[in-house]
Amino acid sequence: MTKHLRLPAVMEVTGLARSTIYAQIAEGKFPAPVKLGSRAVAWPETAIIEWLNSRPSAAAA
């Protein structure tokens, strides 16, 4: 079973602000959340890990 991360956890893991996350979702540059209920969303942990791994690392610069 996949673990899902709520927004505060996604913000902590990625270092991005809420507004940046949603702006990048709108641009198609960040994974969209999945609905857990009528007013709750979360991100699959695997989607966030894949997104982080796809980012250029500081060591490569």
From TrEMBL:
InterPro entries: AlpA (IPR010260), Prophage_regulatory_activator (IPR052931)
Domain of life, source organism: Bacteria
PANTHER family xrefs: DNA-BINDING TRANSCRIPTIONAL ACTIVATOR ALPA (PTHR36154:SF1)
Protein name per the record: AlpA family transcriptional regulator
